[in-house]
Amino acid sequence: MPAQPEAHASSPRDDAIRLLARREYSRAELAQRLASRAHPPEAIDACLDALAEDGLQSDARFAESFLRSRMMRGQGPLKVRGELERRGVERTLVATTLAAAEQDGEVDWFELAAEALSRRFTHPGDSPRERARRERFLASRGFDFDQIRHALERLGATE
């Protein structure tokens, strides 16, 4: 049982650095992880402020990294936005990150929807039921109506 005292002996900064060495975390996620390790709330806040000042933790960098990873998975803007907000990233930062990615040409949600659909299905569907299945697939991935319509038209044009 010597592992228990060692876990409490580490500082919030040590634990945060260990977590951040693996991947980016939002401030809220990091606070939650540190709280689960029984660090006092005042120490967590001070630690997170210091990490942000030192440039070791950034919600903006987390949001950009998260966006890129979700784009690689073929997820749409609605799902990405929801996930980022659930992870404690402010709505304005989420909107700014998504807008910047679109403006920089990093992502075209219409093309991403078409690619995701074509990876899963070879044609848009012969019956309304099959077509609805494809629409549900894209909607569950976080694409809006216009993006879904574009993807279906594009899949139909390749036949």
From TrEMBL:
InterPro entries found in the cross-reference section: RecX_HTH_1st, RecX_HTH_2nd, RecX_HTH_3rd, Regulatory_RecX, WH-like_DNA-bd_sf
Keywords: Cytoplasm
Domain of life the protein comes from: Bacteria
Protein localization: Cytoplasm
Keyword Cytoplasm carried by entry: yes
Annotated ranges, domain RecX first three-helical: 13-49
Major location (coarse): cytoplasm
Signal peptide interval: none
Occurrences of domain RecX second three-helical (ranges): 58-98
Domain RecX third three-helical: 106-152
Pfam families found in the cross-reference section: RecX_HTH1, RecX_HTH2, RecX_HTH3
Family membership: Belongs to the RecX family.
Physiological role: Modulates RecA activity.
Descriptive protein name: Regulatory protein RecX
Native species: Billgrantia antri
Gene for this chain: recX
